[in-house]
Amino acid sequence: MLQSEYGIREVDRERAFLVLGEPKENRNKLKKAINSVYEYRSKYVHGRVFIPNPMSMKLADESLDKFQDKLLKHIDLAMLLLVASLQKLIIEDGDEFKFSETVLMRSQVEEGSIP
Question: What DSSP string describes the chain?
Fold first, then answer.
């Protein structure tokens, strides 16, 4: 996995925790679940998920069922995160989330020259 992909996934997950709060229990399990959603999304978007053609299959075809089960598993968590974030915006009378990030070079951290 590319470092940049891991970085984006990590940032997105941490932003979800910032918006919705740190999980009190099962933090590692939730991190893995969010990582799995992000990884599946990435594979789907970049064409690495086989999408069965329902027109060339029988309705009872097992591969279609497996595809739908895996897809829905990931969609469920993604939708919960999205709806909970939107609900927080509405409750707090907001209209957007803004994040600010700082990029530091390793030498800055080691020297203690962080502004």
Answer: --HHHHHHHHHHHHHHHHHH---SS-HHHHHHHHHHHHHHHHHHHTT-S----GGGS-TT-HHHHHHHHHHHHHHHHHHHHHHHHHHHHHHTT-S----------HHHHHHT---
Residue whose token pair is 């707090």: 92
71 CB contacts (<8 Å, ≥6 apart)? 40
What is the value of pTM for the model shown?
A: 0.67
For 44-85, the pLDDT digits (tens) are: 889 998 887 777 766 667 777 888 888 899 999 999 999 999
